[in-house]
Amino acid sequence: MKVAVVGATGLVGSKMLQVLAERNFPVTELFPVASERSIGKEVAFKGKNYKVISYQDAIAAKPNVAIFSAGGSTSLELAPKFAEAGITVIDNSSAWRMDPSKKLVVPELNADALTADDKIIANPNCSTIQMVVALNPLHKRYGIKRIVVSTYQSVTGTGKKAVDQLFNERKGAENGPMAYKYAIDLNVIPQIDVFLDNGYTKEEMKMVNETRKIMRDDNILVTATTVRIPVVGGHSESVNVEFADDFSIDEVKQLLSEAPGVVVQDDPAEQIYPMPLWAHEKDEVFVGRIRRDETQPNTLNLWIVSDNLRKGAATNAVQIAEYLAGKGLL
Is this prediction's pTM over 0.85? Predict the structure, then answer.
């Protein structure tokens, strides 16, 4: 299996290489791709160093699959070039997610929709992925009517510059790189991405629109507030979900514990609940603080945590590649 990783020198691209190695994806040849200024640099994969090459050289090498994490504008430009050469693209940017002709895939939910004709496949937003993985088994059983979600998102979701900003501020260093308009250490920033005309941010509307598309149900109502916090290692979400049918807490916990990719951490007596500290470098979605909303019928509160660079990005993309390879679609 010949594999290209486009954006191989970035935070998510590096994580993709790590996850490909950890999961023993059958890579026979690797082609790391990055911007022109990175060509010739080396990246490590399974104990060997590989030189970063141009996208033209990668296309000429005819990989079976190209996993992209190079930003939306790069993806809009390059993904079609790879696809035209017969290479399957799995793209981690927002470029193709809401394109009606492209599949938006979380393997636990909707990989069955993929065919050999899908040459550009979209990887959803990190905060959406972890929420739908946890909610899907509950939706199938009780029918979701409405979701209210507030996120507490790691600086790694912004990139290396944001991580550097956080740790420079923590050390008291002045005049360091600023990924955000404001300080992030000892602060909370209630803005992720740009504001839209309706007063919501792009990140918030991604959660609204992507959730409906992935869960194949345009009737689900979603409202989101997305927030950046001074944490490295995972995104957390407070989720309030209203169902069409009533539930028992015991059955909810059983459904979640049996769901692929979900781990229940819910023991109030022992103060056990999901935290980024525990989710860091793990692929599962962790769910806890499972309790009934006592203010209205058929409504549940959940706390959902996952490593945003792994299941929220790299691991989900690699899982899509694994599905395609397993079904002979590459």
Answer: yes
